[in-house]
Amino acid sequence: MSPIHDQTYRHYEGYREPPGKTWSVIAWAGIRNMLTKRAFLGLLIFAWVPFLVRAVQFYVAANYPQVAQIIAPNAATFRDFVSQQGTFAFFITIYVGAGLIASDRRANALQIYLSKPIRRVEYIGGKLATLLFFLLGVTLLPTLLLLLIQISFAANIDILRAHKFLPASILLATVIQSLVMSCTMLALSSLSNSPRYVAILYTGAIFFTTAMFGALAAITGGTRVAWVSIVSNVSQVTDAVFRQPPTYQSPWQISLIVILALLAISVSVLERRVKGVEVVS
Question: For residue 278, is pLDDT > 50?
Answer without folding.
Answer: no
